[in-house]
């Protein structure tokens, strides 16, 4: 089952929340009108009729594809005792709370039902085009080193302590989110790191979360299928920094941690009223890295600025990972973690699944699986590969269907510019024709010296066949994913496994 198709079977918290509707409404700072006035006990808040249990307040959300109001009857049949609506639903004889914006009120009520679970947790929200998942994992390692009880939410999974739960979106919708925060509190979690996608910010999925530290990694092109322009994309991301609020609390200050080297840094600095800490590769940033030494197996640099100089040797590869480590280190420092714990964690973290992950092989060339699925991340990763490759670089790359079309030629162009041979293939074509996606990619190519292999497995095999001593193969775009979506079907597929199995088979030859 895929991340996109995953059924999050039941909500994580099993504690029965019980609040009278009137109690919840008393806290609601929005204008509403009651239809079929009544005061049932609410035990669940959900916007998905398929999740409804007895005692639910079902929130009717107008989505991009369907209108939740059309599922109100189904929710009632399953035991919903109240509805949150934007228009009256006829023939459903339960109390209906009519408001102007269901989504906004839904996150407020979910927060109230679960007794504001994030107010006394250290909440870190990370946004940016690339690096969010990586930074959450680095932070998890640091806080664990500091004996904290951690949870993380993001692209790969929801993790509470050592337990892993499947996740549908990088940043889930509010009823699931607040229930999960409740589950975290039940598990004694005190530090939660969450990726905050621009979609989530645009759709208000994180409203009501008491974010303590907001982190900005970088902003480059992606998701222009969803956000009309780069400005809209940036403005969505800026909302995380506005959510830090205006009140300065000297005892528990909130912070914005910002990549000072990013061309958009000033926008994010101006978006917040809270103290800002910048990080980067020059002395102009509050925390900076110098003396960077990159290799295929380790990265070394000196952390300086707001701390006394300390040398870090990490297994996270590439200059972009220096940025990720800086973001995590600045966040941890402002969370009160001593430098000794930060150093220990940066030096012990083995890597993040599907991010610059080396396929274990005894061959004299190497295969790297990486989640680069934007022009900038592909460029960064290929530049990193260039720094240590003695032979040729083979880049296996495709682009996702039903996603930003304008990044396709750019990614192909990056492939041809920074590698010796680009093998264009399929990523998750979804409902688009795989060949048509590849045609879009070809528009960005200047030479004719490339290979097309629509079948991703064959493309990986082809790259391995072509590679010789000292060469490096980069398989980009799908990283940790264990599936491929073709049409509306999902098939098992794992870049790492495909490469590994073929290498094993060849070794056996
Ligand atoms: C474009 C987008 O953001 N879509 C999200 C949106 O879907 P939608 O508006 O189409 O929802 P819909 O299907 O019309 O349903 C409307 C309402 O009816 C309800 N419903 C629907 C069917 C039913 O039988 N019963 C029922 O009650 C739904 O639960 C929903 O509340 O609301 C859904 C429920 O919250 C999300 O799962 C869905 O994410 C889809 C799966 C998606 O692909 N989103 C991607 C683009 C996304 O959000 N990606 C970012 C990461 C991007 C990145 O940085 O890489 C992410 O945070 O994951
Ligand atoms: N700081 C960075 N700057 C540029 N590229 C990066 C950075 N960190 C990671 N990358 C590249 O981006 C890819 C995705 O990294 P990661 O999963 O951490 O990002 P993300 O922001 O969580 O992505 P998504 O939006 O898909 O959730 C990596 O595989 C790597 O190629
Ligand atoms: N969160 C991103 C992931 C893209 C990963 C890539 N493999 C693809 O399917 O396009 C998205 O949904 O746009
Ligand atoms: Mg991510």
TrEMBL record:
<dbReference type="InterPro" id="IPR013221">
    <property type="entry name" value="Mur_ligase_cen"/>
</dbReference>
<feature type="modified residue" description="N6-carboxylysine">
    <location>
        <position position="237"/>
    </location>
</feature>
<keyword id="KW-0131">Cell cycle</keyword>
<feature type="binding site">
    <location>
        <begin position="427"/>
        <end position="430"/>
    </location>
    <ligand>
        <name>meso-2,6-diaminopimelate</name>
    </ligand>
</feature>
<feature type="binding site">
    <location>
        <position position="49"/>
    </location>
    <ligand>
        <name>UDP-N-acetyl-alpha-D-muramoyl-L-alanyl-D-glutamate</name>
    </ligand>
</feature>
<comment type="similarity">
    <text>Belongs to the MurCDEF family. MurE subfamily.</text>
</comment>
<dbReference type="GO" id="GO:0005737">
    <property type="term" value="C:cytoplasm"/>
</dbReference>
<dbReference type="GO" id="GO:0051301">
    <property type="term" value="P:cell division"/>
</dbReference>
<dbReference type="Pfam" id="PF02875">
    <property type="entry name" value="Mur_ligase_C"/>
</dbReference>
<keyword id="KW-0067">ATP-binding</keyword>
<dbReference type="InterPro" id="IPR036565">
    <property type="entry name" value="Mur-like_cat_sf"/>
</dbReference>
<feature type="domain" description="Mur ligase N-terminal catalytic">
    <location>
        <begin position="42"/>
        <end position="89"/>
    </location>
</feature>
<dbReference type="InterPro" id="IPR036615">
    <property type="entry name" value="Mur_ligase_C_dom_sf"/>
</dbReference>
<keyword id="KW-0547">Nucleotide-binding</keyword>
<feature type="binding site">
    <location>
        <begin position="128"/>
        <end position="134"/>
    </location>
    <ligand>
        <name>ATP</name>
    </ligand>
</feature>
<keyword id="KW-0133">Cell shape</keyword>
<keyword id="KW-0961">Cell wall biogenesis/degradation</keyword>
<protein>
    <recommendedName>
        <fullName>UDP-N-acetylmuramoyl-L-alanyl-D-glutamate--2,6-diaminopimelate ligase</fullName>
        <ecNumber>6.3.2.13</ecNumber>
    </recommendedName>
</protein>
<dbReference type="InterPro" id="IPR004101">
    <property type="entry name" value="Mur_ligase_C"/>
</dbReference>
<feature type="domain" description="Mur ligase central">
    <location>
        <begin position="126"/>
        <end position="332"/>
    </location>
</feature>
<dbReference type="GO" id="GO:0009252">
    <property type="term" value="P:peptidoglycan biosynthetic process"/>
</dbReference>
<keyword id="KW-0436">Ligase</keyword>
<feature type="binding site">
    <location>
        <position position="403"/>
    </location>
    <ligand>
        <name>meso-2,6-diaminopimelate</name>
    </ligand>
</feature>
<keyword id="KW-0573">Peptidoglycan synthesis</keyword>
<feature type="domain" description="Mur ligase C-terminal">
    <location>
        <begin position="354"/>
        <end position="479"/>
    </location>
</feature>
<feature type="binding site">
    <location>
        <position position="481"/>
    </location>
    <ligand>
        <name>meso-2,6-diaminopimelate</name>
    </ligand>
</feature>
<feature type="binding site">
    <location>
        <position position="477"/>
    </location>
    <ligand>
        <name>meso-2,6-diaminopimelate</name>
    </ligand>
</feature>
<dbReference type="GO" id="GO:0000287">
    <property type="term" value="F:magnesium ion binding"/>
</dbReference>
<dbReference type="Pfam" id="PF08245">
    <property type="entry name" value="Mur_ligase_M"/>
</dbReference>
<keyword id="KW-0963">Cytoplasm</keyword>
<dbReference type="GO" id="GO:0005524">
    <property type="term" value="F:ATP binding"/>
</dbReference>
<feature type="binding site">
    <location>
        <position position="169"/>
    </location>
    <ligand>
        <name>UDP-N-acetyl-alpha-D-muramoyl-L-alanyl-D-glutamate</name>
    </ligand>
</feature>
<keyword id="KW-0132">Cell division</keyword>
<dbReference type="InterPro" id="IPR000713">
    <property type="entry name" value="Mur_ligase_N"/>
</dbReference>
<dbReference type="GO" id="GO:0071555">
    <property type="term" value="P:cell wall organization"/>
</dbReference>
<feature type="binding site">
    <location>
        <begin position="170"/>
        <end position="171"/>
    </location>
    <ligand>
        <name>UDP-N-acetyl-alpha-D-muramoyl-L-alanyl-D-glutamate</name>
    </ligand>
</feature>
<feature type="binding site">
    <location>
        <position position="205"/>
    </location>
    <ligand>
        <name>UDP-N-acetyl-alpha-D-muramoyl-L-alanyl-D-glutamate</name>
    </ligand>
</feature>
<dbReference type="Pfam" id="PF01225">
    <property type="entry name" value="Mur_ligase"/>
</dbReference>
<feature type="binding site">
    <location>
        <position position="197"/>
    </location>
    <ligand>
        <name>UDP-N-acetyl-alpha-D-muramoyl-L-alanyl-D-glutamate</name>
    </ligand>
</feature>
<comment type="function">
    <text>Catalyzes the addition of meso-diaminopimelic acid to the nucleotide precursor UDP-N-acetylmuramoyl-L-alanyl-D-glutamate (UMAG) in the biosynthesis of bacterial cell-wall peptidoglycan.</text>
</comment>
<dbReference type="InterPro" id="IPR005761">
    <property type="entry name" value="UDP-N-AcMur-Glu-dNH2Pim_ligase"/>
</dbReference>
<keyword id="KW-0460">Magnesium</keyword>
């Amino acid at each position: 089952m895929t991340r996109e198709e995953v059924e999050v079977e039941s909500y994580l918290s099993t504690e029965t929340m019980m609040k009278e509707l009137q109690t919840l409404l008393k806290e609601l700072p929005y204008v509403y009108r009651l239809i079929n006035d009544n005061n049932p006990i609410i035990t669940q808040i959900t916007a998905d009729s398929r999740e409804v249990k007895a005692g639910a307040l079902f929130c009717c959300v107008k989505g991009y594809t369907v209108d939740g109001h059309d599922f109100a009857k189904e929710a009632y049949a399953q035991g919903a005792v109240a509805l949150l609506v934007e228009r009256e639903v006829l023939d459903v004889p339960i109390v209906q709370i009519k408001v102007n914006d269901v989504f906004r009120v839904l996150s407020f009520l979910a927060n109230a039902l679960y007794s504001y679970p994030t107010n006394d947790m250290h909440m870190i929200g990370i946004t940016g085009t690339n690096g969010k998942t990586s930074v959450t994992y680095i932070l998890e390692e640091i806080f664990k080193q500091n004996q904290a009880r951690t949870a993380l939410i993001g692209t790969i999974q929801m993790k509470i302590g050592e337990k892993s739960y499947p996740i549908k979106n990088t940043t889930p919708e509010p009823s699931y989110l607040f229930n999960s925060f409740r589950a975290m509190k039940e598990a004694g979690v005190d530090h939660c790191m969450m990726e905050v996608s621009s979609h989530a910010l645009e759709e208000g999925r994180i409203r009501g979360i008491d974010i303590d530290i907001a982190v900005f990694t970088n902003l480059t092109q992606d998701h222009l299928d969803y956000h009309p322009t780069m400005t809209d994309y940036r403005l969505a991301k800026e909302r995380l920094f506005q959510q830090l609020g205006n009140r300065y609390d000297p005892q528990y200050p909130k912070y914005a941690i910002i990549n000072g080297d990013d061309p958009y840094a000033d926008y994010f600095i101006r978006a917040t009223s809270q103290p800002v800490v910048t990080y980067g590769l020059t002395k102009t940033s509050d925390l900076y890295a110098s003396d960077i030494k990159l290799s295929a197996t380790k990265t070394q640099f000196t952390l300086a600025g707001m701390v006394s100089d300390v040398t870090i040797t990490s297994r996270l590869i590439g200059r972009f990972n220096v940025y990720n480590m800086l973001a995590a280190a600045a966040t941890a420092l402002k969370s009160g973690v001593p430098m000794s714990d930060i150093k220990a964690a940066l030096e012990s973290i083995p890597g993040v699944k599907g991010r610059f992950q080396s396929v274990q092989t005894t061959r004299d060339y190497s295969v790297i699986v990486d989640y680069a699925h934007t022009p900038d991340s592909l460029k960064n990763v290929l530049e990193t590969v260039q720094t240590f490759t003695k032979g040729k670089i083979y880049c296996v790359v495709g682009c996702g269907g039903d996603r930003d079309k304008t990044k396709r030629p750019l990614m192909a162009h990056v492939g041809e510019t920074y590698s010796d041979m680009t093998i264009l293939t399929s990523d998750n074509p979804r409902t688009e024709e795989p060949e048509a996606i590849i045609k879009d990619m070809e528009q960005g190519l200047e030479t004719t010296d490339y290979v097309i292999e629509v079948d991703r497995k064959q493309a990986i095999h082809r790259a391995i066949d072509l590679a010789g001593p000292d060469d490096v193969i980069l398989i980009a775009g799908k990283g940790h994913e264990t599936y491929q979506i073709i049409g509306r079907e999902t098939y098992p597929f794992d870049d790492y496994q495909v490469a590994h199995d073929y290498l094993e088979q060849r070794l056996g030859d």
